[in-house]
Structures are given as structure tokens and as C-alpha cells.
Design brief:
Elements: H1 2-18, H2 24-47, H3 54-79, H4 86-102, E1 106-108, E2 111-113, H5 115-132, H6 136-161, E3 165-173, H7 181-189, E4 193-202, E5 207-216, H8 222-230, E6 235-241
Antiparallel strand pairs: 1-2, 3-5, 3-6, 4-5
Length: 246
């Protein structure tokens, strides 16, 4: 009898979860699932030092799910429409979530940080809406794919480029007569790619400033680079920065 009762309970629960009509049981299941999926993605982002973490992704996912539930519930309850019109409120979620994602994009000294997390926030909202629509398995698959991109694709991208970064190398010289190829050779030795070169000469003071826009690896030996630059005759100073200033 206990086995039959349990089987009957599971069948009833399955019907309540998968019905197109909104009820307390399937709404609670949807919200719990969306929170768990959001927590999984948020944990991965927080472990990478991003601003948006567990709570942010969980709330975004659950909020989008609740929006979908309301989109179906209100027409069913007040207009007698079985399927409702989930498109209206969902469209506002898609538009509005962009402002929240923009808040995670930071400009730090010429570089942009947070674009991937912002894209993840928008995608998490779509997953939450999918949960609210009853696409449970698809939501789980989408979450796994997003985690795969965060942990696999981005890490692989960094490995094959070994963390290339755009930087500005400025070298100040105490002469206007200098062979720039000496510096170019040192940069090439350190596997630094030169994207562009800018030259400023002060004939009155007999000084030169050379600015290189470079692509540099995150694991490059900066101490050895500056040590070699220091050993060059007429080199007064060298600066590595992210902002271009002459």
C-alpha cells in the first residue's frame, strides 16, 4: 500500500509540475530550480573574482522565472485565457535586464572588465524565463552550457593566447638621435607584439618619447624587460600603462 501511495503521489506531483496552468506547487518548483541554477552559475563567476556572484545570478534567474509565471497566471486568473500571453511581460524582462548587465561592466584604466559576466546575466534571465515556461530539462542543459563556456572556453582562450593584454609602453630618451630598432629587438625577445608606434621629439630639450601600443602576455617577465631597457644608453625612464598619453 505504501508503494502504491508513493507512486500515486509522484504521478500527481508530476502532473502538477508539468501542467500549463499555474498552481502553487509547480510555481514553487520552478522558483527553487531557477535559484539552484542561478547559484551554480553565480558561484563560478564569483570564484573568478567577478562582481556579480551567487546572490545576483540566483535573484536574476528567480526573478525572470517569476515574471514568466505572472505572465501566464494573470490572463488565466482574470481573463480566463488558458495559455495567457507570456510574451508581453517577458519582453520587458529581456529589455530591462540589459541595464543590470551594464552595471557589471567596468572600465579600469583603459581596459574593459565584466563583458562576459554581463552576457551571463542576460543569458541567466533567459534561463529563468525558460524555467518559468516549464522547460526544465532545457533550462538545466542551458545552464550546463553556460558553465562550460565560463570554465572551459574562456580558460582555453586564455591558454592559447596566454592572457594577451593591450598595453602602452612609453620610453623617454635624452636624445633625438636614437635607433628605435634597439627597443623593438628587446620587445621581440620578450615575445611582445607591437601594434603601433608613436614618436614625440622635443628639439629644444633634445629629448624623445616613444610610445608603443603592444600586446603583452600576462606571464611576461616585466622586471627583466625594464632591466634591459634601463641598460640602453640614453634611456631615461620607461612606463607600462593601459592609457595612451603622450
Amino acid at each position: 500500500m505504501e508503494q502504491v501511495s508513493f507512486t500515486h503521489f509522484m504521478e500527481l506531483a508530476y502532473e502538477l509540475i508539468n501542467t500549463s496552468e499555474v498552481n502553487l506547487f509547480n510555481s514553487a518548483v520552478k522558483l527553487i530550480l531557477s535559484v539552484l541554477l542561478g547559484c551554480a552559475v553565480g558561484y563560478e563567476r564569483k570564484s573568478k573574482g567577478q562582481i556579480a556572484g551567487v546572490g545576483t545570478f540566483a535573484l536574476i534567474s528567480a526573478g525572470a522565472t517569476l515574471a514568466m509565471i505572472l505572465s501566464v497566471y494573470i490572463p488565466q486568473e482574470y481573463l480566463g485565457l488558458k495559455n495567457g500571453d507570456p510574451g508581453r511581460l517577458a519582453a520587458q524582462v529581456i529589455t530591462g535586464i540589459g541595464f543590470l548587465g551594464a552595471g557589471t561592466i567596468i572600465r579600469m584604466r583603459g581596459s574593459i572588465k565584466g563583458l562576459t559576466t554581463a552576457a551571463g546575466i542576460w543569458f541567466m534571465a533567459m534561463i529563468g524565463m525558460a524555467v518559468g515556461s516549464g522547460l526544465y530539462l532545457l533550462s538545466i542543459i542551458a545552464t550546463l552550457l553556460m558553465l562550460m563556456v565560463f570554465t572551459g572556453v574562456t580558460d582555453y582562450e586564455q591558454r592559447i593566447n596566454i592572457g594577451w593584454k593591450n598595453k602602452i609602453l612609453k620610453v623617454d630618451l635624452t636624445t633625438t638621435e636614437f635607433d628605435i630598432n634597439i627597443i623593438r629587438k628587446i620587445l621581440t625577445t620578450h615575445q611582445i607584439k607591437i601594434a603601433d608606434t608613436f614618436l614625440y621629439e622635443n628639439f629644444k630639450d633634445n629629448t624623445t618619447t616613444i610610445s608603443f601600443i603592444i600586446l603583452i602576455k600576462s606571464k611576461a617577465d616585466m622586471l627583466d624587460l625594464f632591466k634591459q631597457l634601463k641598460s640602453i644608453e640614453h634611456v631615461k625612464s620607461a612606463t607600462l600603462d593601459s592609457d595612451f598619453k603622450i
